[in-house]
């Protein structure tokens, strides 16, 4: 089978090309799974929250699941900042309302946000967003400085960033409560853009997690 070509707008054609592709896709799905769209029209009950990077090469599609099975939040370099109302609102809705059973934080190799964080070049507004990753870089600077190959260093920082973001998720009071009652698990994975495979990372225990616990009393 010939490899699928990346989508490019044909010369002289506009957004209507995508609308036609959507129509054809919906018809194909309807043929294979006629109950999918009517079921989705009744509401959603996904068991997975996917927190990933906005990179066009990386998406929850790698899980081979259907529309309605994954609740998704994506941003530059899959970050979960403690002051970001977007990601915090997504987590709250996923845990409290949808009652997902798994949260997956997915980073990836060859991540632009990671590469940028390894430099000292001033980039503008995004520098504020990348600050959390640079904090991870500083925390692990001895390990990272020992890695001479730039790509290996970037890949390792991508993994360390996933670990840090998993810890940030686990410091969320709603997540802590759900994990404590056995209703939720949090995972950290990294996606290889060169193979399409994800690997689960070993997440070390967060020694400071208990300091973030909040009670009603």
TrEMBL record:
Per its record, how is this protein called by name? Carbonic anhydrase
Please tell me whether the keyword Electron transport is annotated for this protein.
no
What is the organism of origin for this protein? Magnusiomyces paraingens
Name the lineage: Eukaryota, Fungi, Dikarya, Ascomycota, Saccharomycotina
Q: Which family does it belong to?
A: Belongs to the beta-class carbonic anhydrase family.
Say what the protein does: Reversible hydration of carbon dioxide.
Q: Does the keyword Zinc apply?
A: yes
Reaction catalysis annotation: hydrogencarbonate + H(+) = CO2 + H2O
* GO terms for biological process, alphabetical: carbon utilization; cellular response to carbon dioxide; cellular response to oxidative stress
Q: Tell me which cofactor or cofactors this protein depends on.
A: Zn(2+)
